[in-house]
Every structure is written in structure tokens, then in C-alpha cells.
Target: Lrp/AsnC family transcriptional regulator
Amino acid sequence: MSRPGKSPQLDAFDRKILALLQRDNNTPQRTIGDAVGLSAPAVQRRIKRMAEEGVIQANVAVLDPAALGQSITIFVEVEVISETAKQIEEAKSQFAAAPEIQQCYYVTGEADFVLVIVVPAMADYEALTRRLFFGNNNVKRFRTFVAMDRVKVGLSVPVER
Model:
């Protein structure tokens, strides 16, 4: 895991490796090595170091929500009443624990949080709102946006400077 206040030093080889891994994390290290001009063991050492430093946070499969019956994507702005550190941490914990919430951001502006939610049906979203928003005395209001189409979805980070 990366240390607070200290950014890992990434060279051009690291950035090229990361770009390839973001496209396909199953790319063999030999193939990555050939593409970036390093040996497979050198690539393996670099990947291990970047994972230990927290640059690489997870190795996951990206799933199609619709294929799993989670066909509705909803974005929600949540405004809280009180922003004490304790209450913000409680909200973060509650949102992080909800499996329907794919992403949660604590933001500036009128809203305090922006959530990305996937559910199979609007009835499931209604039940979630009762549990997370109406059942929470610190939620002042929330605003819902239902996605009509998934135009671009991903978590890729630009790696070239």
C-alpha cells in the first residue's frame, strides 16, 4: 500500500506496463516484456512492486451488469444535514457496505456524495432509498439520475505523461 504523502516513482517502463495491464490484466508477462523491452522476470518484479506500493490496487474481472440481471444504473447526489467528521465517516461506511453501490465519492459543491448504483429493477432502488436515505436522519435530500445508455464505462487511468 502506498504511504501517505509519498508518491511512488514510476518510470516509462512502469507506465507502459500499467497501460497494458489496464487493457487486459491476463496478458502474459513475457508478452508485456516483449512489448516494453524488458524480460518477463523484470516485468514480474515491477508489477509486484507496484502492487506493494498501492499503484495496482486490485486485479478484477469487469462484468456486464445486464448479463447478471442488474440492468439499471442510477447516479445519486446525496446532501447531508450535518458534516461533522463522525457523521461523514458513518455515511461513508454505510454507503461502502451497500453491495448495490458500485462507486461512492465524497464531493464538493451542493451535494456531499455522488453514488453510482446498479439494481435489477426500480423496486430494488426504492427499497435501497428507504434503507439508506429515508431511514437516515442525516440525509437532507437526494437526487436521482437514471442512466439511459452506457456510453463509456471504466476505471482506466491515463498513464502517459
Q: What stands out?
A: The CA atoms of residues 41 and 81 lie 53 Å apart. Residues 40-52 form the longest helix (13 residues). The helical segments are 12-23, 29-36, 40-52, 85-97, 122-134.
